[in-house]
Amino acid sequence: FYTDAAYWALESGITTGATASTFNPGGQLTRTELVTFMYRYAKYKGYDITTGDLSAYRDADRVLPFAVDAWSWAVKHGIVSGVTSNTLAPMNLTNRAQAATIFQRFDKTFA
Questions:
Q1: 70 near 33, Cβ under 8 Å?
Q2: Of 49, 15, 47, whose CA–CA distance to 32 is shortest?
Q3: CA distance between the termini of the chain
Q4: What is the pTM (predicted TM-score) of this model?
Q5: pLDDT score of 22
Q6: CA distances (Å), 50 to each of 20, 33, 60, 62, 93, in order?
Q7: Poorest-confidence range of 11-20, 33-42, 60-69?
């Protein structure tokens, strides 16, 4: 059921897959993965992808190098605000409430 969506996301540059040759549709999603998907989707749609500053977050050094632009974009545009006032928790798993909040903020920002 997810095949068409997975191929679209791959062809559109939204995802590169779980590995070079696989997807993990039943797997858990980290906050970094979700933020990266949203950033790449914004880029795909031609939305503003200017980045901001992560220095206010004490765990900014835990953001993986491939995701720094995505995180700094998401913070700048209010898509994420951290799990506390000074932590991003980039490697934590995303729960449904966090995902829904990120989607809603994205929609409000770019609709």
A1: no
A2: 15
A3: 28
A4: 0.91
A5: 73
A6: 28, 19, 18, 21, 25
A7: 11-20
- With beta carbons less than 8 A apart as the criterion, state whether 6 and 25 touch: yes
Residue recorded with tokens 């966090």: 98
The average pLDDT across 65-93 equals 96
- Is residue 78 within 8 A of residue 50, CB to CB? The reply is no
* CA 44/CA 93 separation, integer angstroms: 25
Percentage of the chain beyond pLDDT 90 is 78
Directed axis angle between helix 68-76 and helix 31-45, to 10°? 80
Q: What distance in Å separates the CA atoms of residue 107 and residue 92, rounded to the nearest whole number?
A: 23
3-state SS class at 54: coil
**Rounded distance between C-alpha atoms, residue 26 and residue 29, angstroms:** 9
In DSSP terms, which residues pair with 3 in a beta bridge?
Answer: none
- Going by C-beta distance under 8 Å and a sequence separation of 6 or more, which residues neighbour residue 12? 40, 41, 44
CA gap 40, 57 in Å, rounded: 22
Give the span between the Cα atoms of 15 and 13, in whole angstroms. Answer: 5
